[in-house]
Amino acid sequence: MNSVLNILMVGVGGQGIMMASDILALALMYSGYDVKKSEIHGMSQRGGSVFSHIRYGEKVYSPVISEGEADILFSTEEMETVRWLNYAGSESCIISTKTKINPAEVKEYPQGVEDELKKKCKNLVLVDHEALSREIGNIKFLNVALLGLLSTHIDVPVDSWEKAIEERVPAGSYEANWKAFITGKEYKTEES
Amino acid sequence: MGCTYKYKEVILNRLLLSGNEAIALGAFEAGVMVGTGYPGTPSTEILENLTTYPGLYTEWSVNEKVAFEVGIGSAISGARTLVTMKHVGLNVAADPLFTSSYVGVKAGLVIVNADDPEMHSSQNEQDNRNYAYAAKVPMLEPSDSQEAKEYTKKAFEISESYDTPVILRTTTRVSHSKSIVIPQALQARNKAAIGFERNLEKYVMIPAFARLRHIEVEKRMQRLKEDVNRFDINRIEINDTKLGIITAGICYTYVKEVFPKASVLKLGIVNPLPADLIREFCTKVDSVYVVEELDPYFEIRIKAMGIQIEGKKYIPITGELNPDIIRKSLRIAGYKSKKTLKEGLKTSLKLPPRPPLLCPGCPHRAVFTVFKKLGLTVTGDIGCYTLGVLPPFNAMDTCIEMGGGIGVAQGIEIAQGEKRHGKTVAVIGDSTFAHSGITGLLNAAYNKRSSLIVVLDNGTTAMTGMQPNPLSGERINGEETIKLDYKKLAHAVGIGEDNVRIVDAYKPEDIEEAIDSLLKSKALSLLVVKGLCVILKRRRKRA
User: Fold this and answer.
1) Tell me: the pLDDT tens digits for B150-169?
2) Would you call B398 exposed, middle or buried from its count of C-beta atoms within 10 A (0-12, 13-18, 19+)?
3) What was the pLDDT predicted at B10?
4) Rounded distance, CA B367 to CA B454, Å?
5) CA B109 to CA B263: how far, in whole Å?
6) In Å, how far are B17, B307, B386, B450, B543 from B359, measured between CA atoms?
7) Cβ separation of B342 and A104 shorter than 8 Å?
8) Do the Cβ atoms of B344 and A112 come within 8 Å?
């Protein structure tokens, strides 16, 4: 049976979801998987919700994940995690930072987001993004640090990650990004 | 977006490419020599990537019509040519499309047309497969990036073998999804000899010659109708014969996901359809469903062949499809997907939406605040600034198509007469103004209209990801070039010295004063609000 794993990455425009999902998809390809990645460019870049579907396995057809079918929901913004919860199932692993970003015209962040996550998600990994950013020394590399954390949940050899990060990050920033990746990989989360 | 890989690394590596990147690679492998187009989501990255390959010419044309015309010229002069645009761009280029079908090619001419089901970044979701049929040109449709590359090359071969332009149709999901592509070596650069040869009966479409060419077009399509039955891009996959599905493009991948056991006819060609192959498939399976996005394009043609099939009775005609929709639709038809799906987590938490907005610090923000304050009727256009319709501005009243706002403003003023005079402005971006706004300006001048046209000049084509245009002084490859002079242009159409103003986008008082005095002047006026796009500004600072 052809088994395909699904990772849905979500966040807000400008948080580096596109780069993170590119790195992940490349790392999967270098590990020998078939992989497809789907996202929508254009309007969504202007401060809107950003998402990227990644599917990998022996043979992948659809680039799009069905509702309930995401094995991992990876999010860089708390409200967005809740917004996309319907793509996760009861057994799915949910990795989310505690980052709170108000939509442009909203003054008050909705109440109870974190509680809702704790209530609904059995396998929840909540990340204190501030602490992690302090550890890596630069919030710019937080997306790659979070990939390091994600890497402990999937089967991808370390050299595939190295190659993917080197290929995708801006020239001259590989060392800093790799350091961030390792920091994320070794990061101890509250729940774990 | 820019280029995410370099051609040097291409050979013998597996690549993870978007459909658009794969099309550029396919064109390069096919030895393309000329690439033209106008930016438009989801097609833009094709030309941006093609530009990074060596030994070929590329340009952002002023609009799709010109891009197509340049393409006709280079193709009939022996250079393989790729022309790219989004679906609504083909409306602009429809005029050359229909007659280029008669004229044919010398070297291959491939038009990439990117449809946008669901209107992720478009004003309508027209199904451009209809254009291929109407213009009598072949159309191919890939389902992933590897096919996008292969079909691009196949399109060039068909173009030359059948002396016709060929359309490669993608949809947003194919254009912007990434999947694995195996690169190949560059083919011999050119099969046809370079050189334009005079051939009046073929290239000069006066009625006497065009009548003869129409006969050739029909002969060509007849020949193709026979041959497409043997094209390997159409494929019958026989599995369980209870359920047969005819599909193409991205929908093929959804069908394989939902019904892995079903028999499938995957069509790589949309026009002309392989009738024999379709009949053969339909005799092998018990019942046949057509799964296609948007119009019942295959369905009506297959039904017209007298074959009993169903499609839009179950499959939605609006929006994008996905595996979930196909699963639900065919369940109603009595076919249950074997796969048991997990249930998605539910939440009752109310979340505020996060819609796209004009960026913080966007130079266009102030002008919309002024429009709102003055209570003007604003005829808008296509670009980031269309977001001026949303809160907090709510300062746009119409948006139809590229360049449309200028003409619409004139119509509104004509219909309403004097009493609404000075209450309407047309607002348009710099790239859109160059694309098709200038003709509207000329029309206003010619017909003695007194409209106020406001050009929001942010120095780039921002919506589609920062492409240079005739008002930014730069070509596709960064080379310096002319910058259209607004004042001279205004002068050339007879706008007086006092009625053309250029103001700083970050000075709302100046904008308001200019709008107020230009409207009061009751004469045709051009106001240019200038401020560099913040994203571009940030990028330049970093570089």
Assistant:
1) 999 999 999 999 999 999 99
2) middle
3) 42
4) 9
5) 34
6) 29, 53, 12, 32, 21
7) no
8) no
Residue A32 near residue A44 (C-beta atoms within 8 A)? no
| Closest to B478 measured CA to CA, from B403, B543, B393 | B543
Question: Cβ atoms within 10 A of the Cβ of B143, count?
Answer: 31
The tokens describing A34, both together, are 């078939």
Output phi, psi for B402, to 5 deg. -55, 120
What's the distance, CA B239 to chain centroid?
A: 36
Q: Where are the alpha helices (DSSP H) in B230-386?
A: 249-258, 275-284, 297-304, 323-332, 365-374
* Least CB–CB distance from B254: residue in A62, A86, A89: A62
Chain A residues closer than 8 Å to B342 by CB: 68-69, 89-92
Which chain A residues have a beta carbon less than 8 Å from that of B256?
Answer: 61-62
pLDDT of residue B191: 66
- Residue that the structure tokens 């590229």 belong to: B402
Alpha-carbon torsion angle A132, A133, A137, A138, nearest 10: 150
Q: Compare B371 and B392 and report the one with higher pLDDT.
A: B371
Number of Cβ atoms within 10 Å of the Cβ of B198: 7
- Could you tell me how far CA B57 lies from the centroid of its own chain? 21
Give CA–CA dist B26/A15, Å, rounded: 32
Q: What residues does each domain of chain B span? A: 7-230, 235-332, 365-542
Task: Choose among A127, A10, A129: nearest CA to A74.
Answer: A10
Residue B12 has pLDDT above 50, yes or no: no
* Chain A residues 133-162 with a CB less than 8 Å from chain B: none
In chain A, residues with a C-beta closer than 8 Å to the C-beta of B250 are 63
Residue A47 C-alpha, separation from nearest chain B C-alpha, in angstroms: 5
pLDDT digits (tens, 9 = 90+) for B18-71: 999 999 999 999 999 999 999 999 999 999 999 999 999 999 999 999 999 999
Which pLDDT value is given to residue A191? 55
CATH homologous superfamily for the domain A4-100+110-185: Pyruvate-ferredoxin oxidoreductase, PFOR, domain III (3.40.920.10)
Interface of A with B in 116-135 (CB under 8 A): 116, 120-121
ipTM comes to 0.95
SS3 content of chain B, % helix, strand, coil (to 5): 40, 15, 40
Write out pLDDT tens, residues B251-267: 999 999 999 999 999 99
Q: Which CATH class is domain B235-332?
A: alpha beta
The per-residue pLDDT for B174 is 98
- Note the pLDDT tens digit of each residue in B340-386: 778 899 999 999 998 888 888 999 999 999 999 999 999 999 999 99
- How far, CA to CA in Å, does B207 sit from each of A35, B65, B134? 53, 22, 19
Asked if A89 and B254 come within 8 Å (Cβ–Cβ), the reply is no
A72 contacts chain B (CB < 8 A): no
Distance CA B371, CA B377 (A): 8
Tell me the pairing of strands B262-267 and B235-237. antiparallel
Give the gap in angstroms from C-alpha B330 to the nearest C-alpha of chain A.
Answer: 16
Of all residues in chain B, the one with the smallest CA distance to A68 is: B344
CATH 1.10.3860.10 fits B365-542, yes or no: no
Q: At B113, list the tokens.
A: 């047309």
Neighbours of B340 (CB within 10 A): 6
B345 and A61 within 8 Å at the Cβ level: the answer is: no
Q: Where are the domains of chain A?
A: 4-100+110-185
Q: Which fold is adopted by the domain B7-230?
A: Rossmann fold (3.40.50)
Q: Given a cut of 60, is residue B73 above it in pLDDT?
A: yes
For residues B23 and B82, give the distance between their C-alpha atoms in angstroms, rounded to a whole number: 10
